[in-house]
Each structure stands twice: as structure tokens, then as C-alpha cells.
Amino acid sequence: MVRGPRSVKRANQAARAGRKEEISPPPSVVGRPSSVFRLLLQISSGSDLISRSSSQIPGRKTPQDPTSDLSPRSDLQSMLTKFETKSNRVKGVSFHSKRPWVLASLHSGVVQLWDYRMGTLIDRFDEHDGPVRGVHFHKSQPLFVSGGDCYFVQIRSNNLKCSIYLYLFSEGDALFVGDDYKIKVWNYKTHRCLFTLLGHLDYIRTVQFHDEHPWIVSASDDQTIRIWNWQSRTCISVLTGHNHYVMCASFHPKEDLVVSASLDQTIRVWDISSLRKKVAPADDLLRLGQINSDLFGGVDAVVKYVLEGHDRGVNWASFHPSLPLIVSGADDRQVKLWRMNDTKAWEVDTLRGHMNNVSCVMFHAKQDIIVSNSEDKSIRIWDATKRTGIQTFRREHDRFWILAAHPELNLLAAGHDSGMIVFKLERERPAFSVSGDALYYVKDRFLRVYEFSSQKDNQVVPIRRPGSVSLNQGPRTLSFSPTENAVLICSDVDGGSYELYIVPKDAAGRGDYMQDARKGAGASAVFVARNRFAVLDKSSNQAIVKNLKNEIVKKSPLPIGTDAIYYAGTGNLLCRAEDRVLIFDLQQRIVLGELQTPSVKYIVWSSDMESVALLGKHTIVIANKKLVHRCTLHETIRVKSGAWDDKGVFIYTTLNHIKYCLPNGDGGIIKTLDNTIYITKVSGNNIYCLDRDGKNHTISIDSTEYVFKLSLFHKRYDHVMNMIRNSQLCGQAVISYLQQKGFPEVALHFVKDEKTRFNLALESGNIQIAVASAKEIDDKDHWYRLGIEALRQGNTSIVEYAYQRTKNFERLSFLYLITGNEEKLSKMLKIAEIKNDIMGQFHNAMYLGDVHERIKILEHAGHLPLAYVTAVSHGLKEIASRLATELGENVPTLPEGKKRSLLLPPSSLICCGDWPMLRVMRGIFDNGLDTGKAGNEEEEDASNADWGDEELDIVDVDDMIQNADIGITAELDDGIPNEDNEEGGWDLEDLELPPDADTPKASGNATSLFVAPTPGMPVSQIWIQKSSLAGEHVAAGNFDTAMRLLTRQLGFKNFAPLKPLFMDLLLGSHTYMNAFASAPAMSIAVERNWSESASPNVRGPPALIFKFFQMDEKLKAAYRATTDGKFPEALRLFLNILHAIPLIVVDSRREVDEVKELIEIAREYVLGLKIEVKRKELKDNSVRQQELAAYFTNCKLQKIHSRLVLTNAMTICYKGGNFATAANFARMLLENGPTEIQAKKARQVLQHAGDRQDANQLNYDYRNPFVVCGETYVPIYRGQKDVSCPYCGARFVPSAEGHLCSVCELAVVGADASGLLCSPAQSR
Fold this sequence. Notes:
Layout: H1 5-11, H2 35-44, E1 81-86, E2 90-95, E3 101-106, E4 111-115, E5 120-125, E6 132-137, E7 143-148, E8 154-156, E9 159-161, E10 163-168, E11 197-198, E12 204-209, E13 215-220, E14 224-229, E15 234-240, E16 246-251, E17 257-262, E18 266-271, H3 284-296, E19 302-308, E20 314-319, E21 325-330, E22 334-340, E23 345-352, E24 358-363, E25 369-374, E26 378-383, E27 388-394, E28 400-405, E29 412-416, E30 419-423, E31 432-435, E32 438-443, E33 446-451, E34 457-462, E35 475-481, E36 486-491, E37 497-502, E38 518-521, E39 525-527, E40 532-537, E41 542-547, E42 552-557, E43 564-567, E44 572-576, E45 580-585, E46 590-596, E47 600-605, E48 611-616, E49 619-624, E50 629-634, E51 639-644, E52 650-654, E53 657-661, E54 667-672, E55 677-683, E56 686-691, E57 696-700, H4 704-713, H5 717-726, H6 732-740, H7 744-747, H8 754-764, H9 767-777, H10 780-793, H11 796-805, H12 809-819, H13 822-834, H14 838-848, H15 851-860, H16 864-873, H17 877-887, H18 924-929, H19 957-960, H20 1019-1025, H21 1030-1035, H22 1039-1050, H23 1059-1068, ...
Antiparallel strand pairs: 1-30, 2-3, 3-4, 4-5, 6-7, 7-10, 8-9, 10-11, 12-13, 13-14, 14-15, 16-17, 17-18, 18-19, 20-21, 21-22, 22-23, 24-25, 25-26, 26-27, 28-29, 29-30, 31-32, 32-33, 33-34, 35-36, 36-37, 37-38, 39-40, 40-41, 41-42, 43-44, 44-45, 45-46, 47-48, 48-49, 49-50, 51-52, 52-53, 53-54, ...
Helix pairs in contact: 4-5, 8-9, 9-10, 10-11, 11-12, 12-13, 12-14, 13-14, 14-15, 15-16, 16-17, 24-25, 25-26, 26-27, 27-28, 28-29, 28-30, 29-30
């Protein structure tokens, strides 16, 4: 029995080993072509497939080839991966020629469309029922084509047809894959299939569009290649001749040639020049001839060459883009290079290295290299000229199946078992350096110089080509010394090296100038002085400084593990580590600044070296010259380059945008890019840049937006006003920015939408524009919000008008109550009566204090008991008796012994008018941008002057609300019910309201020269805004920040002793004033050095009750208590000094020194007094008493107290039998100028002690200098380890670290602290 191709495949899986996992289950027998047609096709193509057994077919080794592990490993990151996906096996990839899109066809039957620049999945198409092996974008038309595996046959006119799929997409169309391996054209929006192409008899391996003609070439396992016209939707040629599966077919990029590769171990080149004249048949006779041509092959395409040389089936063959070369890869694990001419083709060389079947191979479009991938899980790069291997990239677990090159860019894509990667082989960023008006850069192995002003570009010095055959060996960085005209070029050659060139002054434009560069090894090199450069030695982590003769001058160890160095000013290096950067002074060998930051790739200094931008992969960190952080920007796509403009704005580029970054971290987009550029310089509105080909470009930009924002940031409001008048600033982004930054009044001038104007007017407090917008919108919610804002401003007329428009009678009544407008309250009572609103009537009567009306309302409502109680409570006996008669026995009893009080409304503070408004001058924007009638009365003399009287859209509230009658004659006609109308509604014309309420007025105190002030920042908040002084924070009432400051500065932990001082300081820095009897007292901050002549807009620091001269008084009192022997009292006074000093603020540096001296004095006395108190508590331990007395003498005290302490210690030691120690104290006493009594006593001790020794051994050695531990009261001799209190400086044994200081009782021993800060002068 003769078997068809599908049954042969299943029988010969060994011939398809390595692809057997791709074979889909066989379709139903129904619909298969008859064996006669299969036999005809195979005979016509010369196929011996039917008679060939599995052992005779050129087989393939299984994918798990044991030799594959012998392949050398390489780091996948070195291939510069730009994008990677995770999915099922990718069998086909294709780049779009213009957009950053890549198609991936999966073994699961899905086609994915990715944006490789943004890293996002745009769409997916899952109409295929089996693996999709081929996809291809059209070069210019909005088309792509895909081919799949699901075996489907339709018999039409006895013609056998299988299928491939065509996709159509445009801005409004979508790409979708048809099912059953047909070519289907879908509309993107409607998902409608447009047409299907049928013809192949077996799996489709590859599909490709022709660049110029409307052709598609497809290769199939039916051993044929078909060329289709996608415009006429017909097959125009069938190329037969291969006698095994055709694995790929592709057009020549320029000539009328097709190359194909087959498992019959051959590569065929086809001449298709005859297809140019072919026209689709029009009648049935010609169509029958077309059918025969489809079966047996036509003459439109002829075999030009048959290339034989591979030992196994060939998987791929492709043309060189410009040269007459072909490269092929096969299952024999070899890559072969072929050359052809007009008459013949021959093998040039064989590239060996792959350990398994070569899946795909191609020439690189821009370099003389060949790229191949294989089922051995590797991608190999070959030198096409030397025909040697350059580099190998390897994955751990994924076999590679397909390669694709971008038609325009230096990008490659590879599909593997678990997804796809988009990568490039070498960096494309040119190495460049800007010096003044010149740009030095490397292009085409030449050092070139470009002058920005004249735009002249000259080559200066030829750069030697690296001898290494690895990738990424070109120049990476360039450093220029303008004084010596020297250039340092760094590259990755030999693991990192540099070349030093001295450029002669007259070398510009000379192409014949040659120079032997001075070379050296180093990860990076940069000039640090006029004739010195530093080289990074990563092995020893040193910066090696060399002169221009390449001689070592000095070596400096670097403070952190550094992987790159950059220039940071003369003699300074910016060292980059993995997670931080720092500036290192090579001369002093000290760190000048340090900043933690994500991984940094590039460093860009401003022209004045005051600011630096640290560029990472997706981040930009802005810092000052000391690496103090200013702001950080995060980008979703890669940051490529940047430069500072003249105004201090950082301009940078991403893959597709030019953007800006202001000093405060605000950013935005300046321009969208078609191609990636690298900014070299920004000057005015021009950006100078290099593209990836090393060409210089000048791009003009509109800097209005970021200059406007920069002027706002610097508060240069004159520039802002000028830009508003003269520029075309607009858009929601500008409005949102102004609103966000607290300038809604400026945003008002950009807005025409009434709702937005209303919101901005409320935010800025511009009640005039808010009323105008509310009138246009006429929405209840907007009137309600307007009423709230007007009430906040105290503009009762506008509040009244807003309540009228919303018919909010309850709020109107309450408004009249608090403003004391009893007349209008009476009218509201009548309105409520007409509306039959019982509660409204009662409330208005209660607001008016009208008892008779309340009784009347209660009586009419049927609440006779309540009416009776009200009458009795208010002494209305006649009405009470009448009501009692009506109630009869149901008269309520009133509680006895209770004192009655009348319920009367409170007196209003302001009667019938707006609240008084604070008169303030207009802001800079109001003066510059608003006009109006205000000010004509006060400044009549200036009415005819040229002060910019152009008209602006300012609304007069008087004109806007002139017909708003408080009687609600017009607005509320439909809201008051007529007595004759059961449906509601009431006629206000019958109320005959007086004319004085016809038109609500804006505040009479506020003219258009003045505006209501926006709530300012409280003075207490101003005090702490820029202050680091704890005392000022306490005075502002911000205890939390004060305690944090004290903890950071002095290591404080125990704040209990400071609580009363905090409270005293807070109360002493404020005064309180009663405004009205019913209003709470107002707190007023008391400022230091305030005077009436001071500007009201400038706030001084708080007035503190603790002053330094008070400490002198306390110190004298403590001295007196010490002299008098009142040790507990003296100890309390000295501790009080120590506790008050952190809250003191002084003015000068000299006073700061005096404060620190006072701390030392108080510390010594507190320590000594605590020792003395401790000594007196000991009764039975004579030795310890003598030791403590001796330690007391070591404290630095006033002379009078030192003499007393020495006398005391001498006496105690003498009585204790320690004569030698007592004699020593006697000598010390005599040296301190004692009184006569003290001197006499000391001489007596010396006389009686003589040469006698101590009876007891004391832990005291007066010969060895020591300090006393403040916790254990033991000596710490010189050379012994100790810890100290960060505030008072008391010393402790190491075991006391972390304990509360027992001297000052505030700080933690050994805590990290920055030091006492008690004067603004210290911050300056």
C-alpha cells in the first residue's frame, strides 16, 4: 500500500527527531487527498520519500544530544539583552520596520505582538489550531503573514490545497490568525476575516514578504516552495525540485532570487525574474493550465544553483544583504559559507563549533559577522572575514529555533524553548566628551572633533582597531584634558584598558596623522588634573595617578569597592559602587560626600560643577557637588543620555523622548523621538546630539514649559507674568501643575471651562469668578460649595444669594440668626407659614425669640400641652388660663423647685453685614493679570496713564447678582406653595418685601484693589520650617520634632526632666487675647526682637523665656549653695542648668562656646556633688569614703571649692590612717592659695604625717591622670577604654554603654549624636 506523506511522517519519526514534539495529531481521514494525487505530486517532484525507510532518510540526532554539554559557556548578559519574554516555544519572529514591534509565533498556536521598547504585550492572536512556525512583517505595507501546521485539505476543482495565513493591520485594523492553517485577513476593530489563501499540502515552515512586489514566499513539508500574490490572492508559482521537506525559503533583498534549504541536504537558488510579467489567468482554460502548473511545477522560476556539501538535512539558508554570499546551517552541526556569481556557486568555508543541529543562521546587516543558533542552547557569533568564532551566548535549559534581524536597527531576536529575547551584539553609544565649544568623539576608528558654533566636523587622530576578536571592544568612555590637548579612551579590550593620545594643535582635518598611543590596563581612566589622570585598578581597589608620560605618580586606596571612576573636580574622583557613589579627594584621601543610589551608568556634571546627575538604567538622581540628594526621577523605559542647560535644568533622553527635570524633581516631555539620540550639549533652545551612527544633529526645542515651571520654582513672578501674556502655554498638564503647586489663581488665566474655573476660583479664594462660573453652571452642588466658601470668607451677601439659588430656607434662617437680621427672619417666618412648614415656622419663631408666635404654632399644630407649658414658663397667664380651660383635666404639671429660664436667641456679633475683611494688597499675579473697575476711586490720578489697561475676563459680582432678591421673588417662585394650589408653590409677590433687599452686595470693605487673604502658614509652623533648634520647636508647640532633634543631636532618651521646661517654654512664647465673650481666646505667637517697623510678612524667631544670661544667675546661686555646703540644693541647681541648656538659643559663635563651657562646668559639679552625696550615705565603709573624697578632688571646680574639697579629703584620709595620701592632699591644698586656717591645718598634717605610710590601700593614684566614671565612681586611668555621654561629656566604663547617663540624666551613654546645636550661626 502506498502511504501518503502524513502516514509516512508517523512511520518515520526518526527522520524528524528533534521535531517530533511539534507534530500535531493527524486529522480525520475525511477530507484527505486521494493517494493518486499524492503519488502524482511525488512523482512530479522526483521524490523517493515513499520508498525510503527511516534509516535511509537523513536523520537527526535527538534534541538531548549528550555532546551538547561540551559547549563552552558564556554570560548571557554580555549579549546586551534589551527585552525578553516568557512563553511557550517560539518558532518564528519578525521585526516591524518602523514601529518598536516584534511578532512571535508560538508552538502553542498563538501569535504575540510585543512592544520591545516598552516591554508590553500589545495583542495576541490565538486562531491557529497547531504550531505557528513562520511570521513576517511587510516592509512598507500594514501587513504580516504567518504559516502553521494544522493539516487541513479542501478539494476544489480537483485541486489539492493546504494553507498559510495572512494578516492585515493598520491604525484601525488588527492582526488575527486564521484557523486551520489558512491565510486569513482580519480587521482589527471588527475581527472580520477578509480572505484565505490555500495551496500547500503539508506543514508550512517559513513565510516571507517581498520588499518590492506583492509577493509572499512560503516553504512547506510538501517539498515545494510557493510564491503568492497577496493582492490578487492567488498562487503565482510553485517551485519544485527538492525531494524532502523544505525547511526555509527567502527572497534576495535586491535581486530576483530565492534561496531554499531542505532536508535533502541541498540548498537551491531559484531565478524568479520571469514572475515580473506573470498575470493571473482570466478564463477557465487558462485556469486549468494553472492547475497543472500547480501540480507539476511551472517555468516561471528555475533553479539557478544547487549547493551540495552538508552531510545532513539543511535547516536554514540566507542571502548576504549586499554581497554574493549565502550562509547555511544544517543538522551536521556545521555552518557553511557559499559564494556565487553569474554562472556558478561554490563553497567558501565551513564554520564548526555547534554541538547540535544548527537551527538558523544569518548575516548581520551592519557588521561583517555571521549569527547562528542551535539546538545546543547557544547563539554563536562568527567573523565573516576571518571565518572564526568570536563569541558564544548560551542558555542553561532552552534550545534556540529561530533568528531575526531588524531591517533598520542594530537589533536581533531569537526564539527558544521558553520564549524570546531581543538583543544587540555591541553597544551603540559613541564615546564622547564635551570641552567648551568642542565635542570630541570616536567614530569609524577615528577621533573626531565637532565645533558647536561653526558646526565643523574634522577627524583628528586614527584610533587603532583592537586586536581582540571579542564583541564590545570599541571605545566605551572618553576623557579630554583641554590644557594639554590630551585624550583618554577606555575600552573593554583585554579585560579593560586605556589609550592616551596627545592631539597636536594642527592635527584637525589631517587624515594621515599617526600616533602611537600610550596604553595601560585599567577598568576605567579619567583626567583629574591638567596633566594627571587616574586609572582604576580593580584587583587592588586603587586609583593609580599617572602623568602624561604614562608614569605612575602615586597610588591611593579607594574607600569602597569601586567598579568605575569619574571626574568630580580637580583632584577628586567620583567612585561608583554597586549601591552607592562617593567623591574621594586624592590629595587628602578623605571622602567629601557619599550618596546611596541605584546602579549608576553615567555621570553628568553641570558646567559650574555645582550639580551632578547620576543616570541609571531607569532612574535619574540629582545631587549637589557634595552628593547631597535633591531629587530622584523614575522612568519606565531606559534612560540614554543627558546634559544641563544654562538655567540649571537637566535635559535627558530616553529611548523615545527628550525630557526635562527641574531642581525640585518635577519633570515633563519636551519632544518625541523617532530614533535614539545621545545629548552632548544644550544651549538655549538647541539640543546638540549624536545618533547611533556617530552623526551630529541639532534639534530645536520649545523650552517654554520648563522655563515657566522653573520661574515658578524660583519665584520669579515677573517672568511668569510675561510668559503668560506672550506665550501659548495651555493644556490640562499646565493647569494641573499650577494647581498642584499652589497657584490656582494663575491657572485661572488658562481655563475656559466653567467648571474648572469654578474649582480653581474656590481654591484661590476668588469669590468673584466663582460667582460668575456658578451662574453659568447653575447647578445646586456648585451653589452649595460657593456658599461654603463665601461663608468662610465672611461674605454673607454671597452666602445669602447662594442659599436663595438652592432654596435652602433652613440655612437662610440660620444665616439671618447669626447676622442678627431679625427683619429677614420675620420674612422667613412668613414664608414658612405660607409653605405650611410647621418646623420651619417654629425654628424661625425661636430664632426671633417670639414666644407668642411659638405658642400659636404649637396650638395650631395640636400640641396644646406644649403650648400651655411655654405660656406658663414665660409668664403669659391669660394665654395659659385659656389653654388650661381647653385642656380640662389634662393640664400638665410643671416641676416645682425648678428655676425657669427663658429660651432667647444670643446676640449677634455683627449685625446685618459682612464680616470685617483684612485689607491686603493684591498678589503679584492679581496686579499683573487682573483688571477691573476697582481702584478708580482711590487712584484717579493714574486713570489715564499707560499701566497696561487691556481687558481681562474679570467678573463684577455686583453685575452678576444684581437681581437676586432676598425675598426670593425671582429664584424661588416655584418653591413656595400658593394657598390655592395643592401641588405646592407659593407666590412671593404678595409679601411686599422692602426694596433694600433687592440686590445682595459683595463685602463693602473689599474692593477689587484688595482680595481676601488666603489662610497663611501659622507662625508656629514658620518657626520650625527651617529651624533645627530644639528650643524653637518647643516654643512652636511641636514637642515631637523637638524630642527627635534632641535625640539626633545629643542622644537624649529620658525627657521626663524636660517636661516642665517644655511647658514653660511653650506658654512663655505665646500670649492669649479674648476677642468676644462667646469666642475662644486667640493664641498669638510672641516673636523675638519684634518692632512696629518690622514688615508684617517677615516673621522673626520665637521669644524664648530661657536665656543665656539667666544661666549665669543660676550658676551663681549654685556656687553659693556649694560654698554653704547645701549639696542637695546645689546639685538641683546644677542639674537644672544642664536640663535648660538644650533649649537655649544664642546668637553668636562666641556665645556657643560659652554655652559649651557652661556644660563642662555643670558636669564637673554634678559629678562631684553626686560623689559627695554618695560618700555621705556610706556609714560603715571607711576605705570607700576615703576613695570618694579623693575622687571629688579630681573634679574641675572653682578654687574656693577646690580648697574646701582638698581640706575635706585631707581630713578624712588623715583620720582613716592613710597619712601619705593625706599629706599629698595637704601639699595640693597649699599650692591652691588657701586661707590662713586651711594653710595652718595643712602644715600640721604634713608635720604629723612625716614619712608614715597609708594604713589602707586605696584605688587612687594621684600620679596617674584619670577621670571618674559617672556611674560606678571608679577611676578610669589614661590608656583605659571608656565611653562618654554625647551631651554632657561625662566618662564611663565600657560596661555602661547604652545606659542612661547618671550625670545629666538625659542622654544615652555612647549614643551617636551630631552635637549641640543652639545657634542659627552654627547652621550658617
